[in-house]
Structure formats: structure tokens, C-alpha cells
Amino acid sequence: MDKTSVGLDMGIIFCKYCQNEIATFDAEKVTTYYSDCQDQECQENRVLTGNSAHDGEEGMKRR
Fold it and tell me: Minimal CA–CA distance to 14: which of 37, 30, 31, 40?
């Protein structure tokens, strides 16, 4: 079966702070990436809690 006829996205990008889904993408296998979302509330929470990009990566490793 041709994979383009199925239309399944096997990749996903999550916000490393709020865990919301940012996007999906076509991939050969299940793939998960973490990034910063542009949601206003999430950005404000990061400022209020003092989380930077480096803090978020460490927080994900500890979970």
C-alpha cells in the first residue's frame, strides 16, 4: 500500500513546557520532538516561573 494514500503523520512536535501539540509531520517511523510553542499563556508562564530553554530541557529529562 502506498503510504501517501493512507495520510498518516508519524511525527509529532510537543511544547516542552506545556506539553501541547505544536504540529505533526510525515515521517518514516514514529518520531517525537520537543520545542517551544508560541502560545501567549505558555510564554507568560515561562517568564513568571523563570524557565528558560535550557531549564525546559532539564525538566523533560527529570520527568
Answer: 37
CB 32 within 8 A of CB 11: yes
What would the pLDDT profile of 13-26 be if each residue is shown by its tens digit? 999 999 999 999 99
| Distance from C-alpha of 17 to C-alpha of 40, rounded to nearest angstrom | 12
Q: What are phi and psi of 57, to 5 degrees?
A: -65, -40
Global confidence as pTM = 0.66
> How far is 63 from 59, CA to CA, in rounded Å?
7
The Cα 32–Cα 20 span in angstroms is: 13
Cα–Cα distance measured from residue 59 to residue 42, given in angstroms and rounded to the nearest whole number: 15
